[in-house]
Amino acid sequence: MIRNGFSRVLQSFCMVAVVLFFSGACFAAPKEVKPTMTPDKPSAESRGATKPGASEPRGRVQKEEPVIRVGLSDGQASAVVTADGEYVIRDAATGQGIDKIAAKSITTVSVKNRKLVVNGKAISAQKIRFSIADSRSARYLSVAGSKYRGDIVLVLAEDQTITVVNEVKLDDYIGGVISEEMSPEWPLEALKAQAVAARTFAAYSLGIHDADGYDVCASTHCQVYGGIESESPAGLRAVSATRGEIMAYQGKPIYAAFHSSSGGMTAGSEEAGGNALPYLKPVRDPQDAANTNSHWQVTLSAKELSAKLSAAGFRIGNIKAVELTPLDIGKGASDRYPSGRIKQVRFIGSLQTVNVPGPKLRWVVGLPSTLADVRRGTGKKAAPNTKGKIEFSDPNAEVVFDGYGRGHGIGMSQWGAKALAAKKTYREILNHYYKDVEFSWLF
Ligand SMILES: [Zn+2]
After folding, report:
1. Can you give the pTM of this predicted structure?
2. Contact status, residue 272 vs residue 257, Cβ threshold 8 Å
3. How far is the CA of 147 from the centre of ligand 1 (A)?
4. Helical segments of 23-90, H only
5. Distance (Å) from CA 323 to ligand 1 centroid
6. Is there a domain that residue 325 lies in?
7. How many angstroms is it from 222 CA to the middle of ligand 1?
8. Of the candidates 239, 300, 319, 431, which lies 20 to 30 Å from 154 by C-alpha distance?
9. Alpha carbon of 25 to ligand 1 centroid (Å)
């Protein structure tokens, strides 16, 4: 499931990640993450190390591994918890013991009269913590049938439902994320680059869900996390080989965006409509050609396109012409970003003329990327985009979007990383996609 679904999951993750970034989310460290998130800088020689993890690089200060609060679900009427060993339930606010439960026994928690009810008994605590009694004899807690490392915390929410949170060490969390984002069958250096990017992204996103009572959610909105069942031996190897390592710019975790395939050139961070970040600039990415699915076409009739535009608020009537500078990858224009991605397309319709921004067009039409050109159909009436303007007289004519790459194009291309991994270390791979960043450690 993981292997087949990872690219789809990734694409949705990246879409959302960009939204998070450009919506100016709050990045204050959440209250419950006790250890500091200030990274340590590696020494000059360890920065170029090819085998981090083999020995501790000089200059690294050992810190306690932070705990991240992952929201597993909100709005639950009840929760069923168990473990493979003896476990304890405590009041999460006071630490006071509530119960000790035998291995594999089930605890059911529900809500009645504004109180949490544990195995039929109402308690005064509003927030309870499940922990393994002895980590030497047990490995996991299970909630809703899925297994997790760390603690499970159940919170009585204001709407009288239960919020389920997994409080887990940061790298255990990354272990449950990485194989959802990249196939464990890919080369180890690519997986290591992915581990550092995912860890950096988590550090950057901390606190995004503070109002919900946790740091990050477990869905595509943040990063997909499936606990122990999402782990793979190769993914865990990549996480431990890069333990605690992140990318920083001016001492802070960077916005480590990544995507499936760049189509030959990555995008600057401003190309999805936000601010230009100094470490996210377009870079040539010829190795992305390793992705044989990089080239794509999306075909629809002029009538269908006009209906989609209309549904998105662009009421143009019948499409009469489309204006867009022909695609030349790596070459900007007034209506294209420096990578060649669409900045805007001009649709001349029977009712009005509108300029549609590239990222908006991508969602309206459902294009894999905005590194694309447009032309009129196939057959006798076919018209390639040679002059930057294509005319349509027939509402049934085919409009063909023809493009390269998958995803927003910002930051690391996973297919590019896969190809680079044949000759490069994970830090060299990351340095290719993120400019002037420092490698440092959170712990
Ligand atoms: Zn989220």
Report:
1. 0.84
2. no
3. 20
4. 44-47
5. 37
6. yes
7. 4
8. 239
9. 11
Does 134 share its domain with 194?
no
Q: How far away, in angstroms, is 217 Cα from ligand 1 center?
A: 4
Query: 219: CA distance to ligand 1 center in Å?
Result: 6
In one-letter notation, the amino acid at residue 129 is R
Sheet of strand 67-76: strand arrangement: 97-101, 87-91, 127-132, 151-156, 162-169, 67-76, 216-217
Are 274 and 416 contained in the same domain?
yes
Distance 216 CA to ligand 1 centre (A): 5
412 and 284, same structural domain?
yes
- Claim to verify: residue 278 and residue 417 sit in the same structural domain: yes
Give the number of C-alpha atoms closer than 13 A to the C-alpha of residue 226, restricted to the C-beta side. 13
Same domain, 180 and 255: yes
Strand (E) positions, 235-342? 245-249, 252-253, 258-259, 295-301, 319-323
Q: Tell me: do 117 and 241 sit in the same domain.
A: no
Please write the tens of the pLDDT for every residue from 104-131: 999 999 999 999 999 999 999 999 999 9
Classified as helix, coil or strand, 191 is: helix
Does residue 69 fall inside a structural domain?
Answer: no
Q: Please write the tens of the pLDDT for every residue from 371-412.
A: 999 999 876 667 889 999 999 999 999 999 999 999 999 999
Q: Which residues pair with 391 in a beta bridge?
A: 321
Instruction: Write out the residue range of the structural domain in which residue 129 sits.
Output: 78-160
Residues 186 and 285 in one domain: yes
Domain boundary among 160, 182, 206: 160
Is residue 12 a part of any domain in this protein? yes
Query: Do 331 and 224 lie in a common domain?
Result: no
Largest CA distance in the chain: 79
Neighbours of 55 (CB within 10 A): 9
Report the alpha-carbon distance of residue 199 to residue 197 in Å, rounded: 6
- Domain total for the chain? 3
Run of H or E residues at 309: helix 302-311
